[in-house]
Amino acid sequence: MHRAAAVACLAAGVLLLAGPGWALLALGVMLLAAAPRQEQREPVTLDAVRERARAAGAWAQQAPRRAAAAASMAVGVTGVPAGVLLLYGGGAAVLTAGGMAVVLSLLTGWNA
Question: Considering the entire predicted model, what is its pTM?
Fold first, then answer.
């Protein structure tokens, strides 16, 4: 019960300081870190939370290339139709967005 109250208070503090999106993110991270594993029966300690944070950090360090690719793909898929909208109008932007969706599905293999 005390752990749940501490997590709720920390999330409320983040909500007041940073906003609702960051509060939800912090709440999810804290609940994930505090959740016991299936094979682990003893209470969660600070060392266990640090170990999980290190593992998540190592995973995040391995992922910048994939994250950059996903972000640039999202920017391209939304940026090109926005530019066409400004230059040629709404109809051309809708056609461009459809074309970008087709190209994206071909590149990522969604049509397989």
Answer: 0.37
